[in-house]
Design a protein that fits this description.
Radius of gyration: 18 Å
Shape: globular
Helix content: 25-40%
Largest sheet: 8 strands, parallel, barrel
Strand order of the largest sheet: 1-2-3-4-5-6-7-10
Mean pLDDT: 97
Low-confidence stretches: none
Order of helices and strands: EHEHEHEHEHEHHEEEHEH
Number of strands: 10
């Protein structure tokens, strides 16, 4: 079964129940949420999120909580070597998100590896490893999935080797979120998707791939800009993205759309329908 959904909102008064209803309105069997605003650490108490009611509604549809994905806030930067307070704050925020993800019943949380700023890539990776080991030693039942990045500025994770090194040096289980826009923008040619997937498997391992972000790109390959486009409206194109969605080696992986709203309206129901109605 193809597991395909989208990012959905979570806002008062319905909170997670509203998220589930939004996902169901798109005929999605997967969804991704932030547990609060991605730009800050303010969070409503988990007791207010209507978790039990939401889980009941989701499971009644025959769907799995494994396909409810949490995205960590953008303010976390475990690669920051120059400002200890930012590094320490990142650990606190990540720890809190892991606690909230566990309370929601999610299995995976997607995390941007971070940016080394003016320091070297190697020192940034060292700091990410340190931060993840510090946080994950508490024994959470949620798997952190490092996201493939576009390579803007000093981002870590725009090469599979970056993620493989972090995974090999962290003492706890990690996964990966493969973003089609990011990998395209970082220079991986998705026209040869079988080869890209083979390279991923050889360097990281497909067993580590748990989440896939399905996004078109406004940029040419290798632009390192990270600008999402709607499905079939960008430089990756519908044919490649539909091949990703229907690829036999990715069957059972949770896939999430993060495409832009069109004239203020979410496009996800139409995009999901179009992607699922392809016969490969």
């Amino acid at each position: 079964m193809i597991k395909l959904g989208s990012h959905v909102s979570m806002a008062k008064p319905d909170y997670l129940v509203g998220s589930v209803n939004e996902a169901l309105s798109y005929n999605a069997n997967a969804m991704m949420i932030y547990t609060g605003a991605p730009q800050n650490s303010f969070r409503v108490p988990v007791e207010d999120l209507k978790i039990e009611e939401a889980i009941k509604l989701w499971l009644e549809k025959g769907y799995s909580m494994d396909d409810v994905i949490i995205h960590a806030p953008y303010i976390i930067n475990l690669a920051n070597t120059t400002k200890p307070e930012v590094f320490e704050m990142g650990k606190v925020v990540l720890r809190n998100e892991l606690i909230r993800s566990s309370a929601i019943g999610a299995k995976y949380i997607v995390l941007h590896p971070g940016s080394s700023l003016k320091d070297s890539l190697e020192n940034g990776i060292d700091k990410v490893v340190e931060g993840l080991n510090d946080v994950l030693k508490e024994g959470f039942d949620v798997i952190v999935c490092l996201e493939t990045m576009a390579g803007k500025g000093s981002e870590i994770g725009y090469r599979f080797e970056h993620l493989a090194e972090i995974i090999s040096r962290v003492d706890y289980s990690l996964g990966v979120c493969f973003d089609t826009c990011h990998t395209w923008d970082s220079g991986y040619d998705l026209n040869n998707f079988d080869q890209v997937l083979k390279e991923f498997d050889e360097i990281i391992g497909l067993d580590k791939l748990h989440v896939i972000h399905i996004n078109d790109s406004k940029n040419k390959i290798g632009a390192k800009k990270d600008r999402h486009a709607n499905i079939g409206e960008g430089n990756i194109g519908f044919d490649i993205l539909s091949k990703v969605v229907h690829h036999p080696l990715l069957r059972g992986k949770t896939m999430i759309l993060e495409t832009p709203y069109i004239d203020g309206i979410p496009p996800y129901k139409a995009e999901i329908e179009r992607l699922l109605n392809v016969h490969i």
